[in-house]
Amino acid sequence: MEDKVYKAGEDYEKEFSPRDYLDTFYNFDSGPVAEREIIKFSLQNLHHTFSVGGIRGDVLIDIGTGPTIYQLLSACEVFREIIVADYTPQNLQELQKWLKKEPGAYDWSSIVKHVCELEGDRSRWQEKEAKLRKTVTRVLKCDVTKTPPLGSAQVPLADCVLTFLAMECACLDVETYRAALRRLADLLKPGGHLVTMVTLCFQHYMVGPKKFSGVYLEKETVEKALQDAGCQVQKCNCVPLRYSQAFCDGLCFIVARKGPSA
Ligand SMILES: C[S@@+](CC[C@H](N)C(=O)[O-])C[C@H]1O[C@@H](n2cnc3c(N)ncnc32)[C@H](O)[C@@H]1O
Questions:
Q1: Which of 12, 123, 134, 251 is the most exposed place for a label (fewest CB within 10 A)?
Q2: Whose CA is nearest to atom 16 of ligand 1?
Q3: Which keywords accompany this UniProt record (predicted)?
Q4: In terms of DSSP bridges, do strands 5-6 and 188-199 run parallel, antiparallel, or are they unpaired?
Q5: In what order do the strands lie in the sheet with 210-213?
Q6: CA–CA separation, 14 and 83 (whole Å)
């Protein structure tokens, strides 16, 4: 393990290895039990939100997508178009590899099968992979610390903005986090939903031998930041699950709705 602690910004571009990240946190079959339980928690909440929860629409924008697709597997059934965005070029490349079925792409099949099982038919996993590949229409560069976060890209206002485990990495202090959430709310139509998963009391996580830090957030800080960004919290599901490869004190899945005039 290296002593240095890497931070938001250029460190991601230079030091973040998508494969180390995927192997550490998304090895569903033979990775650590803790990480597997957290993936299941995420998938269950996403399934609920985008099925019985009734959140659906034309456009979903996922911010801080990283090299992962698990967070889009339920949503791709109920949105016409998904736009994904991340700060780190090598994450966007890793994503494109999977989207274009290129050799060496990460194998998400176990996780896709699990989501299909939640939806009632494990056998349709290849159909779901094809559906997601078709629904993701754009892969964009973004920086949530900048206004606008998607730079010069022209995107429609979204019915849903998703951001999973990313804002606490992209922001190094609470003020930056609050400003980032306001930028995400600006991407939403009035009445649209912001769906997020946050690591509570986050300090750092391991990506291979490298330690990356972020902002320490308590549940109340997250809820207040959402409210101040014009979003009303509709669901806040916090659990004391902890990663084996990250230092935090639980996880929180949140659904918030942007007010009609925010
Ligand atoms: C822990 S990963 C989360 C990836 C994925 N969403 C997941 O659920 O596993 C954190 C992500 O935040 C992204 N990130 C870091 N700084 C950012 C910024 N300023 N704007 C947007 N994304 C950023 C990183 O590139 C990385 O993909």
A1: 123
A2: 170
A3: Methyltransferase, S-adenosyl-L-methionine, Transferase
A4: unpaired
A5: 5-6, 210-213, 204-207, 246-247
A6: 24
**112: pLDDT strictly greater than 90:** yes
- Which one, of 96, 89, 99, lies nearest residue 16 by Cα? 89
User: What are the phi and psi torsion angles at 62 (to 5°)?
Assistant: -105, 120
Q: What's the ipTM?
A: 0.99
With contact defined as beta carbons under 8 Å apart, do 184 and 158 qualify?
Answer: no
Residues with CB under 6 A from ligand 1: 8, 12, 64-66, 68, 71, 86-88, 91, 142-145, 164-166, 169-170
The total number of residues shown for the chain amounts to 262
**Is the separation of the CB atoms in 243 and 41 below 8 Å?**
no
Structure tokens at 33: 């039990």
Centre of ligand 1 to C-alpha 123, Å, is 31
Note the pLDDT tens digit of each residue in 217-244: 999 999 999 999 999 999 999 999 998 8
Q: pLDDT tens-digit profile of 182-200?
A: 999 999 999 999 999 999 9
pLDDT at 260: 87
Ligand 1 atom, smallest distance to 143 CA: 20
- Considering only CA atoms, which of 243, 229, 139 is closest in space to residue 175? 229
